[in-house]
Amino acid sequence: MGRYVIRRLLQMIPVFLGVTFLIFVMVYALGDPVTALFGDRAPDPATAQALREEFHLDRPLWQQYLYYLRDIFSGDFGTAFNGQPVSELMGSAFPVSFRLMLVAIVFEAIIGITLGVLTGLRRGRPLDTGVLLATLVVIAIPTFVLGTTAQFFLGVELGWIDPAVSPEATIGELIVPGLILALVSLAYVTRLTRASVAENARADHVRTAVAKGLPRRRVTVRHLLRTSLIPVVTYLGTDIGNLMAGAIVTERIFNIQGVGYQLYQGILRQNSPTVVGFVTVLVVIFLLANLLVDLLYAVLDPRIRYA
Fold this sequence. Notes:
Elements: H1 2-28, H2 33-37, H3 45-54, H4 61-73, H5 86-121, H6 126-140, H7 143-157, H8 175-200, H9 204-211, H10 216-245, H11 248-253, H12 259-268, H13 272-300
Helix pairs in contact: 1-13, 5-6, 5-8, 5-10, 5-12, 5-13, 6-8, 7-8, 8-10, 9-10, 10-13, 12-13
C-alpha cells in the first residue's frame, strides 16, 4: 500500500505540471490582462509597462509559468489587480465552498445510495418506477430553475430560510443551497447505485451468501453493497471538485461568496492571477480526491490488492 501511494503521488507531479501549464497558457495567452484592467480607457504606457514588469508579463510565457511555480510553492499565488492577495481570496472562499460541498456530498451519499439500494432490490416495482421518473425530472430541470424556485417559496413566500446566505455561510444556511447543488448528482448517484446493485445481486458471491442462509441484511450490507459502491465512490470522488468549482449558479442565486463566485468575478474582470490561482488549487483537490477514491477500493472490496 505504501509503495502504491508513493507511486501515485509521483504520478501526480507530471499531471499537475501539465494541467496547470495548459491552464496558465489558456488564461494568459488570451488577451492582455493589463489592458483589460483599464477597461475602455487606454492605459498610460509607463503605467502599463510597470504593471507588466511587476507581474512578469513582459517575459516569455514559459518563463512566466516558471515564476508562477516558484511563487506558489512559496505560498504566494500572486496579487489580484485590485491589490488584494489571491491567497486572501482563497482563505475566505474555499472554506465556504468546502462546507457547501460537504452538505451536498452528504445529501448525495445518504439519499442517493439509499434510494439506489431500495430500487435496485425492487427493480420493476412501483417504487423503482417512481424513483426513476423523479430522477429524470430532476436531471431535466436546470439548476437555476430549481434554485430560484426554492429561494422564492422557502425564502420569500414561507420565510423558512433567508433568501441570501450571510458572509459567514454557516452549515444551517447552506442546507437548502447544498440540496439544490446536489440534486442533479443525487439523481445520477441513485441511478448508478440502482444499476450496480441490480447487477451484483446476481453475482456468484452474493448467491453463495444467500445459499448459506445468512441474514438478508448482512448479505445486502457486507456482500452486495460493498462491491456495488465501487462505481458510486468513483463518481462521488470526481464530484468533489465539480461541486466546489461548478457551484457558480447556486452561489450566484443564494449570494454565496465561495470558489464559484470568485472564479466568476475573475473571469468577468479578466483577473488572470485569481483564475489561475483558484484553478491550480482545484487541480490539487481533484488529484487528492482521486487518490482517496483509489484507496477506498480496497476497503470496499477485499479482493483488490495494491502492488
